[in-house]
């Protein structure tokens, strides 16, 4: 048999040979990563949708205000409240965080994020949001996100903006998510976190742009950041914060661009002072994002009520129109009888 014929025969046998279990697992694993943060092409897909990790790009207009606000000291993180002993407990918990779940549950949430009354959820599939137009991007499942109580925003507005601000088909989940945290175990590539937070930031920026457009389309894209993301990698104890701001564009396949800018990063395992500063910035940032949500929800509700009142007034005028008075008004002449006429007709003369 000739060499070329032998090669063809081998190819035919190989084509007929069934895949082993391990080959199927490898293929399945690769397929499951497509369209997720584990896919190296993931960042490019978001660039194609107008979402950019743009650290050297233009900063949001409220950049300085955000920095000033996030740097405010917190009493709960003072040296008397968070001591050297507490810092060492955190270091121990961080060292034992061998998986993504333990990283978030034992190191990030109890120590760095701390106790708060902010409404938050974790591991919720964002299966109600409008798909991004370019690329096969799977539904977002943030490690942790902050949002608002659905009942805070009028039902009519929620229904109108549902696929942009209601992340889950379970309507009881927090809405208008604009603050996210992504964590990972120590052995994972930090680039995965970068892609995760890019995905989260795109959703947060889009949600806030949607409600701002409802409030006033003319000022929706004002260049300010109203969303924030953070990542935590236990390998070096690295906490990184990002702002997200929307920019209106014309002539593109998408109506707006969303730019993520790195705000600060902290090595949380370095020293107590560094830990306190990083936790301060994160906690203050979450508080600020809640204030942004509350403010926008109040403005949206107020606009709806104003429109509703105007519509009711218009309907009332249509049902019961008010007839305008003639202009000029007609003259009214009152004849007063003379005394003689009054006596003759039995009328009492005016006094």
β-strand number? 7
Q: Can you write the helix and strand succession as a string?
A: HHHEHHHEEHHEHEEEHH
Strand content: 5-15%
Strand neighbour order, sheet with most strands: 1-7-6-5-4-3-2
Specify the structural class.
Answer: alpha/beta
- List unreliable stretches of 5+ residues: 2-32
Q: Rg to the nearest angstrom?
A: 33 Å
How far is it from the N-terminal to the C-terminal residue, by CA? 144 Å
Contiguous helical run count: 11
The amount of helix comes to 40-55%
The average pLDDT is 85
Largest sheet: 7 strands, mixed
Q: Assign an overall shape.
A: elongated
Ordered list of secondary-structure elements with their pairings:
Blueprint: H1 3-16, H2 21-33, H3 42-48, E1 51-53, H4 63-70, H5 84-95, H6 100-113, E2 120-121, E3 144-148, H7 155-160, H8 162-165, E4 175-183, H9 190-215, E5 225-233, E6 238-248, E7 256-267, H10 272-319, H11 339-344
Helix pairs in contact: 4-10, 5-6, 9-10
């Amino acid at each position: 048999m000739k060499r070329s014929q032998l090669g063809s025969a081998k190819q035919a046998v190989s084509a007929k040979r069934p895949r082993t279990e391990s080959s199927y697992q490898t293929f399945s694993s690769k397929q499951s990563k497509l369209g997720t943060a584990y896919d190296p092409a993931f960042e490019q897909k978001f660039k194609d949708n107008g979402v950019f990790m743009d650290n050297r790009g233009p900063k949001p207009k409220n950049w300085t205000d955000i920095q000033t606000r996030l740097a405010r000291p917190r009493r709960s993180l003072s040296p008397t409240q968070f001591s050297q002993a507490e810092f060492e407990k955190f270091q121990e918990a961080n060292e034992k965080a061998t998986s993504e779940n333990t990283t978030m549950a034992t190191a990030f949430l109890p120590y760095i994020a701390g106790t708060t009354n902010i409404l938050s959820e974790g591991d919720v599939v964002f299966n109600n949001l409008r798909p991004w137009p370019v690329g096969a991007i799977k539904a977002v499942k943030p490690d942790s996100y902050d949002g608002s109580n659905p009942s805070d925003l009028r039902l009519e507005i929620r229904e109108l903006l549902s696929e942009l601000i209601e992340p889950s088909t379970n309507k009881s989940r927090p809405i208008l998510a604009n603050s996210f945290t992504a964590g990972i175990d120590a052995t994972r590539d930090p680039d995965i976190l970068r892609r995760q937070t890019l995905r989260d930031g795109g959703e947060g920026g889009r949600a806030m742009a949607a409600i701002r457009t409802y409030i006033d389309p003319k000022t929706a894209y004002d260049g300010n950041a109203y969303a924030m993301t953070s990542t935590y990698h236990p390998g070096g104890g690295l906490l990184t914060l990002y702002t997200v701001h929307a920019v209106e564009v014309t002539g593109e396949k998408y109506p707006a661009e969303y730019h993520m800018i790195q705000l600060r990063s902290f090595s949380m395992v370095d020293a107590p002072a560094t830990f306190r500063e990083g936790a301060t910035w994160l906690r203050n940032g979450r508080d600020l994002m809640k204030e942004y949500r509350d403010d926008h929800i109040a403005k949206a509700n107020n606009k709806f009520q104003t429109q509703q009142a105007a519509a009711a007034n218009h309907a009332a005028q249509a049902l019961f129109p008010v007839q305008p008075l003639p202009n000029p008004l007609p003259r009214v002449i009152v004849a007063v009888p003379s005394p003689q006429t009054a006596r003759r007709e039995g009328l009492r003369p005016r006094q």
